[in-house]
Design a protein that fits this description.
With 475 residues, this protein is α/β, with parallel strands linked by helices. The protein is built from 12 helices and 18 strands. The protein has 2 domains: 2-6 and 45-306, 3-Layer(aba) Sandwich (Rossmann fold), CATH 3.40.50.1110; 345-474, Galactose-binding domain-like (Jelly Rolls), CATH 2.60.120.260. The protein is 28% helix and 20% strand. Strands 1-4-3-5-6-7-2 form a 7-stranded mixed sheet, sandwiched between helices. Strands 8, 10, 11, 13, 16 and 18 form a 6-stranded antiparallel sheet that branches. The protein has a 5-stranded antiparallel sheet with strand order 9-12-17-14-15, with no helix packed on it. The longest helix has 22 residues, at 285-306. InterPro entries: SGNH_hydro_sf.
Length: 475
Amino acid sequence: MVRYSPLGTLSMLKHSPRMTMMAIFSALAVLSVVTLVALRPSHFAHPLHFFSSGPPPPPLDSHICPATGPNNHYEQLYGHEFLQRSIAHEGSNKRLREKIAMAQRGEDIRMAVLGGSVSAGHTLDDWTRVYYHRFLDWWKEQFPEGHHSIFSGAIGATDSGYFAYCFDKHIPKDVDIIFLEFSLNDASTLPCEMNDKKGSIVQAKMMESLVRNLLRLPRKPAVIMTSVFSYNVNEYLDGQESHLPISNYYDLPHISMKNALYDHLNRYPDDLRFKLYNDGHHLSNWGHQLLSDLVSHYVERQMCAMSDKVQPVILDNYSYKESIPKFDMFTHRWEQDKFRELEPYCETFADQSYKPRDMDGWTFWDWQKEKFYIVADVPGSQVTFEVRASQGVVYLYLFRSADYNLGNIWCWIGDEKDKGRELQGYWDKWYSVGVMTPVAEGLSQGKHLLHCELMNKTSNPEGGTNFRILAVASG
């Protein structure tokens, strides 16, 4: 794997023939009570209880394709119903099957991953045991003739909003398959803990922008969405609810560990929790193996479907033949003539060669060579960025936290300081993440200057005035 950086059995009851019928009934009654008390249903009915990590299954036989049924490797491990539940959206898989066909011809397949701390391998002793590296091993077993690789663009505590504009700073553009994992860091469109119980479509818009831009890349990559979930979060709703409509609209496969396991862990919290997580939030080695197996099984299903000789009859002009939908999800029909594709522009401090146009009182700073910022503490400190607009929007990717003495900044475009916008670094949530925050909308196409000034005013109850910016984005 490559870290991409253009910048850098119940035991059987035995009894004597001499045992009386009454004794048999008594023994069975006792056994039933003991079984009900000692064994929860998951222990004798749930196949996960018997699962242990092992080598990937052998390559599929070209004449026998056991994607389902009792002889299938994954169904023996997990059971048919569990695997079916993990497929949140099946899709037609047109693009994925094209990539499989390429690999079957012996061509090289280049993959990439965008995601948060789970995909970055946090809490793993060996980050190469992350789910997509295991999947790459499986893929190489299936298609040994090609030279296959995967690029990691994952960054902890980072949501899809950042990558919607800055993805090409972290993965190459000439890739064939892309995995997305943002269910923990994106908020639901429904009222939830992460959006202050208000509900918001912002996260869905960001993920759609990311997906649409990835699908437009030169090699027309297949995009596979994945969902995990945190045991430490107090509710069901998370980024998956923002992502599923996008899976539907763009015909993307969506593999969900949450669909398969959320209710099980509620019913039997000690059954798998300590096996699935290292800290209740980040997956363990076993958790990554499980997610890899779910994805591998799904791809295996597509390989088997491709071996089916029955071809459906499709209308000659059916839109299935089109690469992506003509318009995005949020464009009204009566405004379609005004639709313009987002041409993302991003300058990120992960690119350590990038410098804003002007800085006074701001300094460069990094956290463990993983997070890169410009930081200011003194009110009045100013920074100016040059941005480019296609759809007329400008964002700052800000660090937000209840810690670190964070304060407020005032940002404006051009000379219109009085029409600016106040942005807050402090919030009262328990987690600390980067947040793509709108600064301006409705700008004319072309270049603009964005100015920001650290304010004396602060939303921090302790008076903090520190501020951290990770990136500036526009489109």
